[in-house]
Write a structure and sequence with these properties.
It comes from Lysobacter stagni. The protein is built from 5 helices and no strands. The protein has 123 residues and is an all-alpha fold. The radius of gyration is 27 Å and the shape is elongated.
Length: 123
C-alpha cells in the first residue's frame, strides 16, 4: 500500500509540502531516497530545514517517534548531512546596495528639471 507523506508519522504539513515539492510524495519515495538524501533535496530546493526534519524523516521510515531515535543514530545522520552540505556550492549572495542618501535642495539652488516638468516654450 502506498502511503502519502501527508500521512506519515512525524511529518507535519509544512514538511510534507516540502517533500512533495522535491518529488517525495510517498513513503516508498522517501525510503528509496533515504533519510539524508531526502533532507538534502529539501535543502537544495532552497528551503531551510532543521535537524528536526532529518530526525522526523528517519522516524517516519523507522515508524517511531523522532525522539526515540538513538543518540548514536542521530550522530550518524548529522555527520552524513554535514558531509553532504559541505559538498554544496557556496551560496550566491547579492552584493549589498550602496547606501541611499537624500539631498535637500535649498532656495538658493536652482532646481533641476525633471521628466515631468513642462518643456520650456521655444522662441
Amino acid at each position: 500500500m502506498t502511503t502519502s507523506t501527508d500521512k506519515l508519522r512525524n511529518i507535519g504539513p509544512k514538511s510534507a509540502a516540502w517533500l512533495r515539492q522535491v518529488g517525495l510524495r510517498t513513503r516508498e519515495d522517501l525510503a528509496a531516497a533515504g533519510t539524508v538524501e531526502a533532507f538534502m533535496r529539501v535543502k537544495r530546493a532552497g528551503f531551510k530545514p532543521t535537524l528536526n526534519l532529518l530526525y522526523a524523516i528517519e522516524g517516519a521510515l523507522q515508524d517511531c517517534h523522532w525522539q526515540e531515535i538513538s543518540e548514536a543514530r542521530r550522530g550518524e545522520l548529522i555527520a552524513a548531512a554535514e558531509a553532504a552540505i559541505a559538498l554544496l556550492p557556496p551560496p550566491r549572495y547579492k552584493p549589498a546596495a550602496a547606501p541611499v542618501t537624500t539631498t535637500q535642495m535649498g532656495e538658493d539652488t536652482m532646481a533641476m528639471p525633471t521628466l515631468f516638468d513642462e518643456p520650456a516654450e521655444r522662441e
